[in-house]
Amino acid sequence: MSNPFVQPDLDYDREHVWHPYSSMTEPGRIWPVVSASGVRLKLQDGRELIDGMSSWWCAIHGYNHPTLNAALVEQAERMSHVMFGGLTHGPAIELARRLVALTPDGLDKVFIADSGSVSVEVAIKMAIQYQQAKGETGRTRLLALERGYHGDTLGAMSVCDPRRGMHHLFSGILPQQFFVPEPATRFDQPWNPEDMTPLKRCLEDNHQQIAALILEPIVQGAGGMRFYHPEYLRQARALCDQYGVLLIADEIATGFGRAGKLFACEYADVVPDIMCVGKAITGGYMSLAATLATAEVAEVISQGEAGCFMHGPTFMGNPLACRVACASLDLLMESDWQAHVTRIEAALQKGLAPARGLKGVADVRVLGAIGVIELEQPVDTARLQPACVDRGIWVRPFANNFYVMPPFVMGDGDLAYLTSNMVGALESTLAV
């Protein structure tokens, strides 16, 4: 279809299609996309935008990749879906084999879920069922970090920041969890041992009620795009062991190289009891995630009262998604991904540095293929986003953060164009 959008379509979209984090009475502006290739989105009006978001951090290989296209078509011709209860298939087995090989040693049991939020729900249920199977029936609550973000479903929302997070409106109906202040020591600062005091006190006082500590290793994403010191993660692991609390690592955003290591847990050389992965797992082709657990977690749950783990999504282990995920992970590991991420990190550091001189900018920081310009006040998205589109870039700011997570295949010229026009767009909106 050469011209898929006409004005009645866009009018219908405005009246009937509810976009994420949007109002139906006063919807924000949207731009119709007709195709995508490499690192570019092509709009209805013919303009092309360099995509700085990797479509919410997942399209690490860019768009319309021939290898991923071929994997999708080949699998569709064999079997697009089959229930995973009582059946299995090659793509799921191969995906599990890759995930066990790539993730930290000891994470040997793989539960293939539908999305990142679902993988967090699965992790929470695993932790609670594990403690119940051990006879620790009072351990029904989670411990989480302020400024954390773990997804939009009810269980996942309950472990997001309860005050400053986007889900505080639901606080009255969410399970009540324990929270401690986020780590204050930045990734690149000297370690401050006082950072551990709140976590130590909370575990000492409440460990008999706590099933697991859930956190985003090193990078707190949608809760503020914060990078914290690896020592916090190391000591958190030790405290969890001391108090019989499981450690859940939410690597949905950071996994598969985004933060400069294949998994951010590697910065602290720790192995969580449960790990959630998603986003980049299929290279942005379709929704898929996984929750990995240690043999101990799996065995204790399996020997408990239920005799099984009580979860089973309809589309669990979807063959199409698993096959594309295998191809995506192969592409990643066959490439020099770490060199690409290091190159992107250097380009982001250089390209975003001029923003430090702009009035209203609180901080500029980069880690791996993540670049953040933090403002002193919330971003004026209604003005900044169109300014970016007018300059040929796609960046979607939120709260106080104007950030990018480019595809790993983005070239130096596009990175320079992306960052310089981010700074230019920001300067033009702050100046008004």
From TrEMBL:
Binding locations of substrate: 56, 149, 279, 312, 396
SUPFAM superfamilies xref list: PLP-dependent transferases (SSF53383)
InterPro entries, per database record: Aminotrans_3, Aminotrans_3_PPA_site, BioA, PyrdxlP-dep_Trfase, PyrdxlP-dep_Trfase_major, PyrdxlP-dep_Trfase_small
Site entry: Participates in the substrate recognition with KAPA and in a stacking interaction with the adenine ring of SAM: 21
Major place of residence: cytoplasm
Pathway as given in its UniProt record: Cofactor biosynthesis; biotin biosynthesis; 7,8-diaminononanoate from 8-amino-7-oxononanoate (SAM route): step 1/1
Enzyme class: transferase
Annotated localization: Cytoplasm
Record PTM N6-(pyridoxal phosphate)lysine, positions in chain: 279
Keywords: Aminotransferase, Biotin biosynthesis, Cytoplasm, Pyridoxal phosphate, S-adenosyl-L-methionine, Transferase
EC number: 2.6.1.62
Family: Belongs to the class-III pyridoxal-phosphate-dependent aminotransferase family. BioA subfamily.
Summary of the function given for this chain in its UniProt record: Catalyzes the transfer of the alpha-amino group from S-adenosyl-L-methionine (SAM) to 7-keto-8-aminopelargonic acid (KAPA) to form 7,8-diaminopelargonic acid (DAPA). It is the only aminotransferase known to utilize SAM as an amino donor.
Quaternary structure note: Homodimer.
Protein name in the entry: Adenosylmethionine-8-amino-7-oxononanoate aminotransferase
Organism: Thalassolituus maritimus
